[in-house]
Every structure is written in structure tokens, then in C-alpha cells.
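Fold this complex.
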Amino acid sequence: MTVSPDALVEIAEESPQADLTEPSGAGPEIGNRRLRKEDQRLITGRTKWTDNIVLPGMLHLAMVRSPFAHAKITSIDTSGAQGLPNVVAVFTAADFPDGMGACANAWPITPEQVTPDHLPMIGERVACAGEIVAVVVARSAKEARDAAEQVDVDYEELPAVFDAMEAMKDEILAHPDKGTNKSAFWKLDSKEAGTGGDVDEAIAKARQDGVVIEREFRQQRLIPAFMEPRSTVVDPTGEQVTMWSATQIPHILRFLIAATTGMPESKVRVIAPDVGGGFGGKLQTTPEEFITLAVARRLGKPCKYTETRSESLISGHHGRDQYQKLTLAAEKDGTVTGLKVDLVANLGAYVAIVGGGVPVLGAWMFNSIYKFPAYQFNCQTVLTNTTWVDAYRGAGRPEATFGIERIMDELAAELGRDPLEVREQNWIKHEEFPFTSVAGMTYDSGNYEAATARAKELFGYDALRAEQAERRERKDPVQLGIGVSTFTEMCGLAPSRVLGSLAYGAGGWEHASIRMLPTGKVEVITGTSPHGQGHETAWSQIVADRLGVPFEDVEVLHGDTAVAYKGLDTYGSRSLVVGAEAVVRAADKVIEKAKGFAAHMLEASEDDLEFVGGRYGVKGTDKGVGLTDIALATFASHDYPEHLEPGIDADATFDPDNFSFPHGTHLCAMEVDTETGQSRMRSYVCVDDIGHIINPLIVEGQIHGGLVQGIAQALWEEAIFDENGTLVTGSFVDYTLPTAADTISFVTENTISPSTTNTLGAKGVGEAGTIASTPAVVNAIVDALRPMGIDDIVMPCTPQRVWKAIQTAGDHSGDVAAQAQPHFDEGAANADPGVTGEGNGQ
Amino acid sequence: MTRITVTVDGDTYTDDVEPRTLLVQYLRENLGKVGTVIGCDTSNCGACTVHLDGRSVKSCNVLAVQADGHEVTTIEGLATDGQLHPMQKAFHENHALQCGYCTPGMIMQAIDILKDHPDPSEQQIREGLEGNLCRCTGYHNIVKAVAAAAKAPGAELASSKVGE
Amino acid sequence: MIPTAFDYVAPESVADALAALADSDDAKVLAGGQSLLPILRMRLNAPDKVVDLGRIAELRGVREDGDAIVIGAMTSYVDLLADPLVAEHAALLKAAIETVADPQIRRRGTIGGALVHADPAGDVGAPVLALDGELVITGSAGERTVAAADFFEDLFTTAVGEDELLTAVRIPKHTGWGAAYEKFVRVAHQWSIVAVAATVRMEGDTIAEARVGLTNMGSTPLRATATEEALAGKQASAEAIAEACAKAADGTNPPSDLNGDGDYRKHLATVFTRRAVLAAAD
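Structure:
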């Protein structure tokens, strides 16, 4: 029961895109459901995954990892591994007295942030399970693995802390030398910032004559679980080193290799070949990359390391893991007067590349689409003896969206009103854009009414509400719940000046170049680094329209620092709105550069020329010359104006001046079997406003995949450590990813409010589904159970949690699952005053 | 070492292998058939699915020595005379892949579904794919692609050319 | 990940397989390999020898033997699903096997391999137990037959000795019995959290006899004896069935793990027993 493809094309065609394609007059390719250029190699098994690379004389690495979460290494005996057949070397940290680089934190969120050194190989003290203490190098992967098992490591276990609330007490220290587990405290207060009122006043007033809703929510720990395990191949050739890696960030990796090893950046080439998914999980510089690099350089031989899935789940960074406390103040008529947010975020054992910053992104997102007059956001990050935590699809925005969308439902329930109606009462009306939020963000465009109206229509909202009432009436053991999520997000990371003000270690621009080949073909070089997103197709469509060349004649190159020599890679739904905008600007420069040649070739004045359909013509005549003819002419360069250089290739760097703000309305119907606690999805409708759409086919795919990841957080996935710090969900047997048999087909549509921050009018779509769907599902389950007195289920909403909530609901002792979690006030007792300030304690 | 003779994608190979060698490792490391990939170590993900004597198996869950004397078809052996298999075509036309890592296994398993269910319901497709994990597509377009392939001209070719 | 090194033999007769087993202190028998290979790859077990039964033709297939059907231990799940004798005389076994793992694993996996692996969350133990199956075990001294009730000794432990093989499964014919296997999982590729195998012989509207096996409600497959007794001779009404099935978890000691604690599993056992019996009696 999906929307017909034709309907989506119509929607895309209705959008005012003429201005975008006008410069070339060709196309339009933009808006077409172009089948992907990437597919051919992927469906025939001719893909270049890193693990497919075989080089002459290549050696294989196997890692020796700590089984303990926190321990001193008292001795390492490698003699059992040395000398085994085809074992070339065994190294420990002691073999690299000058180090081997370091995993860097690129975003210290405060100047005082406590940031433990994160060395690739540990010689003295491991701070989480899975840390590498030795590496075995052999002629084959199996011989390396066999020998790794013969490395004998003695550990002296140290007390370890795993839970963020426990860590807040500072009784057991994840890093004893740091003296505290608290890494950083970050606050945004609308009164102090001048963007709004005093939230404590709003709460105090609401306690007297309004409504105060206080809730604690848990964002469980997740694992990105990209399908391609991480792999790295390093080929040292003299001074030059080439690294292939399954990474989202070849450019950043190259920079950080140079910055932390002292290697000249110009001697390092990083290639991300085809990369099998990332979802933030490959947005990292990893111990494994640094170790493979160091070993290959030491031995002067090509080396490969490919992780197993079990290694991936314990050592690749995890996502989310935060405690949230929200206090919402409202008038009795439902008008929200203030929101206060307290977060405690678990960073794991180290502050990962943007690990500290991810929860802080919530600062601008908890207020979401609403016009709250007062707002405060407090975030405490803490270190624990667990796998490091960093970006996972959505990164900061799913957490915030979950918190606000859950509590808006709770407000509606408290007032006995329809949850969409209460949202509409508080959201920014379409005529109010641009709108500066209470967190200080300027939302440039949006139309929440339109998306919601369409979603309700597609969903059959009223009919489902009627069925819900009927099932309640007859006490059906299978109850129906309807979940609402209206969301916005900030995409297009990011304006460099904003990043600078937040002490982020890099800019947010993106780069592109366009090479006009003499045979009429076009090469587009992008600094983005796709790993499933379809940039080769979408960028081709954009360039085809812009330059008036056939889609098939455009080739998109990426992911190799020697080819795409400048870039900031792919994450944060940035590629289209920042990266493709750079492509557009490079194309415009090509057109501009070609003008002088056209004038010369046509013996006309530049003023008399117009560029239409890939061709410069003399106005009012049929004289003209094609862009590709100009490219050939500049290749020969036999005859060209003296003031021009012979070539029309161009490059451009685009730095956005604002984020983009996709939004949407997601509606979910869940059937909850009250006998077993099992929840089953009945239907899911979403209407997303992501601005102009370049390729509806790719957009739908991004939404579908995003939805299932968000739904999986609500229902299925959680990374769980036992009391020893062992990851009990350490394989795909226990880390329960959903299958096709667990999911349904979705109804997806779009409304279009173009972004004003890029000429494409696009907003970004990579994370929308994940951000919006989690609260929609949980709201639906809670909605189904609310008549029983249940007002929350902790994620993932497992059948057992739901069933136990039902069992205890009658005696009003609250949600047992929630009780099993540490409570905010207990754990946060020693927190910064900002975290447990007044307004808590109910 | 044990000597085995295996026909893979129509070509016959004879090799000495260690008995512990998994079929997927034999395909990738000995034969260079790197189109078949490894996604997990517990046989949950299905990325390594190939056809053994014409029906789908997880090649990480079969020893190479067990394939001695048998015929294997991988993703690399599906296209004939430069023509994509109808299932490959359907995956392309329905945008049933994003990063593409699960795709070889998904396509091999999808072909197997049509052998049991030439005109499958959505439920039969979904259950038929329950041994194959995908993290990108949310399965929506994969399910669509399998349904489309079943209706495509030449879908009866949807059995691999070996075995049966 | 790759298993540790081992020797490999693929005998073509049961006698040769027994000889190969006797020849080693630490051999593992490879049947379908769908549980064994992940274990070897994760290096949770490191045998010095693997004895592959895959080339022993006599261990495959289903035949009729008087009032029973006899299933060769190396018969694969897909072959069982396609087998008319299984469909006619052991519908419960078929219903359970339909839910095992996924299609690729059902292609390779064998009934004998699963029974000897004896994972309490596996799906074939409960129906074999409920159908009063008998297990034929062959050793150097010849064959012996063990009732299913005596076959499962503990977690991953059966009556099959070190140097013995399970060679066949003998299932008394339950021709005309209604059957249902209710399996509870959170995601489709999981092992059973709880599952219930129920089969009933109806006489008109009355349940003449009922057999109920429980999956993952203890360290071995279990029979819900109290429920079986309570069902016998009852009208197949929803109320009567519900009342009888409320006893399904009596005497069980289910595990507690990530998917549920013991109390929850006991509750699930009663719900799914009721649903399975209702479906079987329908």
C-alpha cells in the first residue's frame, strides 16, 4: 500500500524548479527517478570492497584484545606466537616507543573537557573490553588468528564503571588518573543567551496555575551495525603510503594521520573504495587503522586487517546512551511556556572524534518545531569503562526528537486532548517563517500544517482512532495505539563560523571540481564520500541539468584523496545541501569560464551570448557553440583569446551560512498483544518535507532505511554489558537487527518547502526517517496501553517490558521497566548544579 | 590438506584446501570470487549466500570440503552473455540496494524464493528473506524487487543455470 | 573468523563413521553443520577431527515402519518439509520445522544434528518429545533405542555417547491428529524464546488425547503433562482449553536471559499452549 511512484514524480514535478534548471535550459534531470549508476558493480559482485584488495606480498593482521573492561596489563608473553608457521611479527605497544598516532577528539565541547588519551595499542591499562594489546602479523589471516590465540597476556583487574548514572557518582573511576568521570558540562539557557525567557520562572508559574509534566527517558545504547565489517589495507611504497579503508571520512582520516603521527600529509593517500554502509559508525579514526599503518610502515610490506563481526560490535563505536530528564511547563489551555532538559550522556571510555558534541547537538533540537518562550538545556558527559560512543544515524537529533515528542504526547494526555492538536497549538505556523527559535536557530522554511494534513489523510487517522475506541470498548486483547511524531532536524553540517564558535576542530564547507574532458565527457570530483547514498547518480543529474550534458556523460569521482583532493566527507545529512551545492557552483564557474571562449569562437560580444541547453548562442540568431565543443577547443588551444587561460575546468568550495531544517509528520499504528506484550506494526505513514528532491527513488530509499533503524531502536536493539563489562550482545545472535519478516511496507510522501540556504532548495534526507520514527513507535505503544494507566515503556519496548508494565499498571506502582533503570536524581546527585537544579525532584 | 573439485559459476576447479576452510573463504581467497562477501561470524546475516547444487545456502556455514563434487553458483555467475539475471535487473530497477553489501546474498536468496513460490505473496517474500540482514533499505524496496522479478518476463530463468 | 585446524573424514557408511570416531579423543560429528560451524568459527570448540556424515546415504530419508515413520538422522529440514509421510503422520514435526531458523539453514540443517546438539531453544526437540519419538543410537556394540523422554539429559547433552551416532528418529504415527507449533521470538532470525508444540486427537468436539511439548522452558525440551491430562476428554471449548493450559508451565524451570526472565517465560508458555491447542483442535 505504498504511494505510487507516479504520485511522487508528480509531486516532484509540481515543485518550482524551473529556476534551477533555467541556466542550462536542458533537462530536467532533477526530479527524475533515475536508476542508480552505482548499481551495476554492486549487483554483479564486481565491487571494490576494502577486504577484496589483494596486493603482492600482502601480510595479514590479527588483534589481541582485552577481555576485561578495566585492567592493568602486568605482562605480555608473545613467545607462543613468535615462530609459528608463517608468522612474520608480533608487536605490542612497547615496540612502538614513539607511538603510532592517536584517535583524536575533534570537538572538545568545553575548554576544560576531560579527554583521556586514546592510543591505538594499549601497553599499561585497558579502559574497556576489546582494546588492542598486541598484534600478530602473518602471511595469511588464519595463521595470524591462530598465533594471536597464543599470545599470553596477564591482567590485573581494576574496578570498573559502566552506567552513566553510576559514573556520575565518581566512586569508581573509568580513568583513575583523571580524578573524575565527568568529562564536560555544557549549557544553553535562553535567558542568558537572550533568545527567550527564564525557564525556572516558567516552571514555577506553571506549578501554580498551569501544568508541569516531568519525565525521565532513556536512550539506550545502540550499535551502528553497518553490514560491511571495517577493513583497512595499507601499502607503504618508500615514503609514500596508500591506505584503503572502509571509512566515511577519507579526508579527515588523512588529516588526522598526518596530525597525530607526524607523517607529512602529502605522503599519505587515503582511499575509501566502495564502503558498505556507515550510519556514523565509520565516522571515526580507529585504533585498527593506526595499527595497520604502523605495522605496514615498520615491515615495509602491504598489510591488511579485516575485523570479524564480533570484533566490530565490541570495538566499533556505539551510539546514543543517554539519560534524559525533561520538565515541560504549560498553561492549562495547552500552550507550552517553557522546557528544561537535563542530560547525562555516556561517552564510553574515550571521547571519540565528535563523541562529546553529539549529545550537545540536542541543544538546538529539543525545542523542535515549537514556539517555546523559555528553554534551558544542560548536558553532562561522562566517561565509563565501555566501548566508546559517537555518532549514530541522526546523532543528537534522534535523542532530542524522542524526548520532546514523547513529552508532547504526555502533555496531550494530561490535558485529555488529541496529540496532534496540542502540537499544532504550539508549533511555528507556516506564515511565521523565517523563525528564530528559542535555542537561537533560524529556521528558514517549513510548513508543518501541510505535512500533517497530508499524513493524516494517508494514514486514515480518524478511522484508526475510531477502531481504537472500539477495541478499547470491547476489551480486545490486542489493543491499537496511534503514535505521532512531528519533527525537525538541523542538516547540512555545517556553517564553518558556527562550528568555530563551538570549538569544533574543522570547518563545515565542501569542495567540488568539474573537469571538462576534450571528448565531451564530464568528470565531477566531490569531497563527499558516499557509502550507499547514491551521490554518483544524484550529482550526475544535477550536473546534467546545469551544464546541459547527458546524464550518462557525467562521471562522479570521490573517496580518494589523490583524486578528490579536498573535502570533508559524508555525515550529518550534509552531502547534498553542502557537497552538491559546491558541485553546482563549480558548474556555474565552468559556464562562466566558457563564455569568453564562446565569444571568441562565435566572433560575438559576451553581452550578446546566452547559455541555454548546454550551448552558448548568440541572442536572436541560430549561431552557437556547445560547452563540450568549447572543452575540445580549449584542449587543442590553437586559437584562444590572450586574456584567458586555456581551460574551462573549475572548482568551488561552498560554506553554507545556515543549516537546513527538514521536517515531517510521521504516524504509526501499533497493535499490542496485551497477553504477551508483543507489539506489531500495523501501518506507518510519513510525509517528509526535505525541500526540493533531486531523485525521488533515492529519497524513498533513504526514508525506508532510516525508518527501520529508528523503529529498531524503539522495538529491538540494545547493546548490553553485563556486570563485568562484557558485551552480551556481542554477535548478531543477540544484537537483534530486524529482518524483512519483522518489518512492513511503508507509505511515504513529501511536501516541499524549499530550503533557502542552497540554490538546489534541498534540505537533506539521510537521517530523517531514523530521527522521526522512534518516538512515533513508542508513542503508539504507550497510546495503546494508556487506558491501563501506563505512561511510558523503556526502549527497546520488548514484549517482556510491555507485559510487565501491564501486570503492574493496575497497582499504580508505575513502570517496572523504568524502575529497573537508575533514576536521574539518584545518579545525578553529585552532578553539576546545572543538571539537578531546581525543578527536579518530583 | 584435502583435494577437492568444485564447479563454480560453470568452471571446474581442483584445489588442495585445509579442511577448516569455509566455502566462502575458498571462493574469495582461492578463486578470487570476491563478489560473495562475509558479514558476520554466526550465520545470521546471509551476505555470503550462494547456490549449492541450485539451492541457497550460507557459504560461511559450509566447509569447502563439503562442496567437493558439487556445483556452486555465486552472484558472479548469474549474468549470462552480458545479460543481467531478471533478479539483478529487478534489484536495480526497484532501488533495492544502497551500500550493496548485502546485495549478493539477497539476490541469491531472492532467486531461491521464486523456486518455491513462483508468484509469492509479500509475506512469503518477507519470510523467505528472514535469513538475510540489510541495514540500508529497510527491506521495502527489496520486497518490491522480488515481487517485480516474479512478474518479469523471463522470470522462469530465475533458477540458476546449474543444479536442479 | 575461521575454525582452528582439524582433520577431516567423510566416511560413506555408519560403520566407517563409528570407526573414525573411535579413533579420536576429541572428534566432532558434522551433520548439517548449521550450529556446529558457527561454534567452530567462534572457536568455542576446537576438535582435532571432524567426522562428516554427509556422504552416508543410508542416513537420509523417511520410511514407513508399521505404526511409525522412521527418519534418517541426516535428513534435512527441507526434505522433511516436502515429505508426504511426515505431513500425514507427524504434522506437528512439520509445523515446528517450518519455523526453524531461515530457508538457507533449513536447506542444510538436519533433524539428527539438531537433536544431538540439544540446544533447549531448538525447535525439533519439543515435537519429537510430544510425539513420543524414539531415538535410534548406533555404536560399536550395535543399535539401541532410547525414548525421547530419556534422550535429552541436559543443556547440549543427550544419551548419545562419545563414540556413538544418532542414526534415526522413530516417530509413532499420529495420523489425523491436529497440530500447531507456536513460536515466540522478538525478531525472525532468533532462537525460540518460548515455543509450544501441541497435537491433539479429536473425537467430534472432544479432545480425546493431547500431547504438548515445550521449547526453552528448561534445560531440555519438556512435556506439559498436567495440561495434557487436563485436556484429555474435554470439550474443545475456549474456556476448557484455557483452564487446562493454565497448567502448562507447572514444574518447569525456564531460563532467564536478555529476552525474558523465568516468570515471563512461564506466562508465555501458558498463553502459547492455549493458542497452540486451540489451533490444533480447530
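The first strand of chain B starts at residue 2 and ends at 8.
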